[in-house]
Amino acid sequence: MTTADIGLIGLAVMGSNLALNIAEKGYTIAVHNRTASKIDDFVVTAKEQGLEGKVVPEADLAKFIQTVKRPRSIIIMVKAGQPVDDMIEQLLPHLEAGDAILECGNSLYTDTNRRFAYLQPKGIGYLGIGVSGGEEGARHGPSIMVGGAEQQWKNAQPILEAISAKFNGEPCCAYLGEGGAGHFVKTIHNGIEYGDMQMIAEVYGVMRDGLGMNPVAASEVFKEWNKGPLNSYLIEITGHVLAAVEPKTGKPLVELILDKAGQKGTGVWSAIAAQMLGVPATAIEGAVAARSISSRKEERVAAEAVYGKRTGGKSSVSLVDLEKALLAGKIVSYAQGFAVMAKASEENGWNLPLATIAKIWRAGCIIRSRFLDQMSAAYAKGGATNLLMVPDFVTIMKDAHKSLRTTVAAAAIDEFPLICLSASLAYFDSYRQALGTANLTQGQRDFFGAHGFILIDREGEQHGKWPSTLGK
Ligand code: 6PG
After folding, report:
1. Which of 4, 74, 139, 380: disulfide with 355, CB 3.0–4.6 Å?
2. Cα distance between residue 382 and residue 171, in whole Å
């Protein structure tokens, strides 16, 4: 019996919440899971939420497929990597030309490119979809970044738009390009997420150790900042995290959490992609590195025993400077992330719509912010791809970079590690420096490897007449 508008496989947290979201929007959804008991649990939850009439549970994979209307859209929400390939192979014998697999995990975009190319000649559409917003987003409105088969996107578009977050009534969901375009954009979203989180953590470090602020006082500052240009989900939750109390001890929760950050891979992928594309993304790389350093707790403890605790006293930096430093660092980090996307778009022939990407990140996703509204408006005017050259942001940056400088300089003297903020500042200073120092690098390259250089006053590649260093 064909009754469902769409199917979903994989009823873990994200899958269940997406399925409930779809049912709530009035669509009938067939659900399947390898472990059948999860299907029963899901039905109970759907019932509790008054949505059981919209759910078609099916433990048999072949029957599950048959319940979905053609052309079929089958969402798969399984662990990234081999499980996705295994699931594709299981689905293939049951699918018909024109059907589509919608893969909504955090997959590596090159895997998505490969799967798209594998399924295309078989007449099966493959959509690699980035879904951001965590559990709550999946249930009530995530940001949805779609890449892959355009025809099958059109089939699924009404449902995906209906379940997505809305910003001023506009769905935060868009088709971004063929193959792995959607997953690539999600990866860069996560790289930017890492940058935002790390810069916030660095500022918290200055507040805690340099300004002697307790978590409650720091929380109040973040709550205040959330009313200004930094207004964003991550600043908002920072206020909540800092204010939380651990019930057993009554102590601030944040002070009891071990300072080792986890990571599942998307930050690393965005840093690798940036490097491979030859686009500098130092803020994102700094954020990834900061997580790796954080995880080496034992080494850090040993190194502190060797070098001693920081000797710097109270920091001279003001809260006004910290707020602006965060804004400047954020502009640089987003400039880098968007430059990576622009280059990837060129290399992969995706034609990524940068203004649309900023738009669909305005609500639902982890990096949602007021800033992205400004950014989408600025990009919509066209012109420069690097945010640092977009007029509205030039105005902000001309002022804010001074605070970033003050903050990074004070932190260096006071011995605070601002790995991401200092990377942002160095990028900014390199980016706007007309005369750099690579002339020397080129001279060195020619000296030891005859790699050649260009002289500013003539055409063509030149070489120097270098002395031999042998036998000296
Ligand atoms: C989102 C998030 C999400 C990601 C987590 C964990 O957009 O909803 O990016 O997709 O999985 O943030 O990522 P890490 O474990 O790498 O921090």
Report:
1. 380
2. 22
Query: 16 and 77: one domain?
Result: yes
Distance 190 CA to ligand 1 centre (A): 6
Which CATH number belongs to the domain containing residue 217 in this structure?
1.10.1040.10
128 belongs to a structural domain? yes
Distance between Cα 415 and ligand 1 center (Å): 30
Instruction: Check whether residue 55 and residue 174 sit in a common domain.
Output: yes
Query: What angle separates helix 319-348 from helix 282-295, to the nearest 10 degrees?
Result: 110
**Best probe residue, ligand 1, of 193, 196, 232, 260 (max atoms within 8 Å of C-beta):** 193
Domain containing residue 302: 187-431
Six-digit token string for 238: 């920072």
Query: Catalytic one among 186, 324, 330, 343?
Result: 186
Same domain? 223 vs 351: yes
Per-residue pLDDT, averaged over 174-200, amounts to 98
Over 80: is that where the pLDDT of 323 sits? yes
Mean pLDDT (whole number) for 395-422: 96
The atom of ligand 1 lying closest to the CA of 291 is 17
Residue 467: predicted pLDDT: 95
Does residue 246 carry a catalytic annotation? Answer: no
- CB contact at 8 A, 225 and 200: no
Structural domain count, the chain:
3
Question: Ligand 1: which of 14, 77, 140, 190 to mutate, judged by most atoms within 8 Å of the beta carbon?
Answer: 190
CATH number at residue 121: 3.40.50.720
Residue 436 included in any domain: no
- Domain boundary, last residue among 179, 207, 230: 179
Q: Cβ(136) to ligand 1 under 6 A?
A: no
Residues 266-293 have a mean pLDDT of 98
Residue in the block written with tokens 């090159």: 110
Residue tagged active-site, from 103, 193, 202, 285: 193
Question: Could you count the other beta carbons within 10 Å of the beta carbon of residue 456?
Answer: 5
**C-beta of 17 in contact with ligand 1 (< 6 A):** no
Say if residue 93 is preceded by a cis peptide, omega within 30 of 0.
no
Q: What is the CA radius of gyration of the chain?
A: 25
